Amino acid sequence: MRSILKTAIENGKQITQSGTVATYIPELAKGDRDALGACIFDTNCNAILEGDFDTKFTIQSVSKVIILICALIDNGKDAVFSKIGMEPSADAFNSMVKLEIKVTHKPSNPFINAGAIVCTSLVAGDNGIDQFNRIHNMMKRLSNNNNIEVNNSVFKSEKLTGNTNRAMAYYLKGANIIQKDVEDVLDTYFKCCSVEVVVQDVARIASVIANNGVAPWSNERIIPEDVNRIVKALMMTCGLYDKSGQFCIEVGIPSKSGVGGCIMSVVPNRMGIAVVGPSLDVYGNSIGGGRVLEELSRKLHLSMF
Ligand code: DON
Questions:
Q1: Does residue 251 carry a catalytic annotation?
Q2: How many Cβ atoms from other residues are within 10 Å of residue 300's Cβ?
Q3: 92-148 pLDDT, tens per residue?
Q4: Pocket (CB within 6 angstroms of ligand 1)
Q5: Residue 118: CA atoms inside 13 Å, Cβ hemisphere, count?
Q6: pTM
Q7: Ligand 1 centre and the CA of 231: distance in Å?
Q8: 197-216 pLDDT tens trace
Q9: For residue 2, what are the contacts with CB-CB under 8 A and spacing of at least 6?
Q10: Residues whose CB falls within 8 Å of the CB of residue 247, separated by 6 or more in sequence, listed in order
Q11: 64 is catalytic
């Protein structure tokens, strides 16, 4: 498996130059376009690290999975999906076009920005600080790493330039879908996106989801089984935004991408995989990371289809 991963990364490196790093959050423009690294963490706790695996990156939209887990545990399925849909949007991750068109004004799913911002507002806590602590603690438990922290430069950069997110959050407050203070909710969401990690942290998070919500290193149940099932289903159908269908065909593993260049993938009952490559395709997904996962899926027969 190690040599297959190594070759996949070498092949992925051939195409990193055909993408671009995210620049709409200025701090992300500092990402290394050529970096490509990965970690496989299986449900027996074996880890394989290859390529630029020590690259630090902000978790960005991969945090939407952890936010959803917290929102579902804290509110239950019915309450969460009374405010957010469970269908792919086929629009860009930051699109707000459907919010006004739909009669209910509900964001299409929890993995587009609008849906994740609503999910953030639902997490238990009296204020944004409590809510962030709840999500941050969940990230630490799922990654088995107590030392993951917010990158403050990225957080400030997101807060300063996050006007599209701000616009949709105020719209959702106007539509009575968000009840809490909008700026507080946005600060929490931006902080979640700005948590800095390495691939091994994310692969461990994925391994818990792969292991039906139980941490492979301690046998502790962290995610209730019904929540874990919902999360995997939404990762499969909505995890790569308007490229989710193509990714299903080419890779076929529940996954979630982020504009920091990470893709987190879950191979049920077998392993968690995390890849990082800050060079992105037009949809905002890691271009080299997608190629690595496609090759791994083909050679290791990982597709669920
Ligand atoms: O809200 C944003 O735009 C970013 N903090 C996260 C977006 C993201 O990662 C989309 N992923 N592909």
A1: no
A2: 17
A3: 888 888 888 887 889 999 999 999 999 999 999 999 999 999 999 999 999 999 999
A4: 60-61, 93-94, 113, 158, 165, 193, 257-259, 284
A5: 30
A6: 0.97
A7: 18
A8: 999 999 999 999 999 999 99
A9: 48, 50
A10: 239, 240, 255, 285, 290
A11: yes
